[in-house]
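re: the backbone from monday

yeah here it is again, tokenized this time
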């Protein structure tokens, strides 16, 4: 059944959907899975592809590592701030239209980044890119929670996050390779072109919503729903988990590149790009963790993924490149597994205003990447990699304690 026309009066309460939710194996399930995979791919490719270019930005514009991290943190920071407004637009105009517009506009702004005349202009364009892209993650989790059967939600959320992982890996790898062969401008232009292709594929494949009824923007209701989410026994802890997970993970990839660029490793941009191929580990981990959580429960998987991330982080202190790479792989596996579990848990935990719950989770997620990702640069400048690992290990210890607390959370009625 197609979504109700926006020309009709908005119902006070959405009507009960007549169409069945999407089950595994159906054509619409496969189209949806592919569509959200491509959307996740495009989003992360556009957001994180400049990460391995940070040493080049430091040299080209004579800026410090913490300042160079702004090419990522400005994007994630504005993305975080745009999530709640974007979720309101998704409630008003529909999930798919908002996601379509977000990815298309993000691709255009990435093309503009390749023409930035100075570092300030580059930061401004990257910030606007983050604001534009906010519409896709703000609506994607709500879309999946509404359209999928609960038994397969973890699997499809894992596919969406796998798309994030592949997009992040491919974007970083391609950017590093093209920057070494040509320039950072060519690299960003190529990523913009990939964003355009992803936007077209997303628009063509994702089915329209069948379990969504448009609602007017009501700030009083928004405030009431936000208070209800923060009054829940589990959602605020999941929001805190998102902040810590993403903040620690972005910090690892931001500044490990500087360490590997220096002695005794002396890796060039292309070699650093190969390091980012470890995102393939995250791609597999997100789907595996989602399926595992569907079978044995999210509370039994989350703490294991956080522990794996911490073990991998400690291994990156080694002076042997093979051990550092192994540690980064384990850290990546733990992060994507934990994020897959926590994000699908939000969709199941929020009984109403799911788009707002998703937006709050992702606001914390991207703010963590922006705030901790930049703050860790100051730690790097003060004490190099051992200091960064020490601070991030503390953050993961807090995250582990939260995961243990969530194990005791009483489940909601099915």
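seq for it, each position gets an aa:
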């Amino acid at each position: 059944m197609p979504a109700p026309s926006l020309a009709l009066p908005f119902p006070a309460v959405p009507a009960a959907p007549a169409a069945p939710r999407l089950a595994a194996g159906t054509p619409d399930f496969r189209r949806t899975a592919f569509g959200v995979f491509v959307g996740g791919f495009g989003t992360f490719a556009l957001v994180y592809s400049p990460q391995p270019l940070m040493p080049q930005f430091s040299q080209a514009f004579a800026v410090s590592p913490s300042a160079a991290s702004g090419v990522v943190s400005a994007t994630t920071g504005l993305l975080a701030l745009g999530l709640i407004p974007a979720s309101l637009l998704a409630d008003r105009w529909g999930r798919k239209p908002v996601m379509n517009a977000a990815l298309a506009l993000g691709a255009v702004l990435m093309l503009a980044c390749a023409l930035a005349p100075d570092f300030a202009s580059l930061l401004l364009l990257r910030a606007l890119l983050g604001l534009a892209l906010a519409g896709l993650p703000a609506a994607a989790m709500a879309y999946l929670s509404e359209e999928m059967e609960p038994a397969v939600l973890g699997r499809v959320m894992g596919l969406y996050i796998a798309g994030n992982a592949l997009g992040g890996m491919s974007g970083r790898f391609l950017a590093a390779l093209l920057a070494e062969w040509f320039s950072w401008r060519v690299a960003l232009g190529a990523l913009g072109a990939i964003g355009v292709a992803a936007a077209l594929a997303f628009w063509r494949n994702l089915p329209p919503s069948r379990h969504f009824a448009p609602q007017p923007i009501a700030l009083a209701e928004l405030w009431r729903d936000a208070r209800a989410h923060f009054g829940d026994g589990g959602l605020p802890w999941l929001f805190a988990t998102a902040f810590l997970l993403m903040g620690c993970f972005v910090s690892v990839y931001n500044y490990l590149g500087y360490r590997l660029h220096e002695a005794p490793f002396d890796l060039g941009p292309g070699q650093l790009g190969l390091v980012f191929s470890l995102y393939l580990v995250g791609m597999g981990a997100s789907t595996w963790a989602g399926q595992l959580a569907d079978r044995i429960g999210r509370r039994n998987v989350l703490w294991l993924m956080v522990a794996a991330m911490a073990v991998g982080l400690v291994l990156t202190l080694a002076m042997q490149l093979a051990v550092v790479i192994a540690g980064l792989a384990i850290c990546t596996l733990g992060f994507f597994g934990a994020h897959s579990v926590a994000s699908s848990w939000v969709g199941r935990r929020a009984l109403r205003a799911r788009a707002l719950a998703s937006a709050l989770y992702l606001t914390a997620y991207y703010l963590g990447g922006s705030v901790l990702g930049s703050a860790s640069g100051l730690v790097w400048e003060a004490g190099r990699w051992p200091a960064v690992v020490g601070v991030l290990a503390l953050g993961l210890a807090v995250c582990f304690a939260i995961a243990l607390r969530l194990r005791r959370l009483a489940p909601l009625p099915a």
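Residues 38 and 372 are 28 Å apart (CA to CA). The chain has one domain: 27-407.
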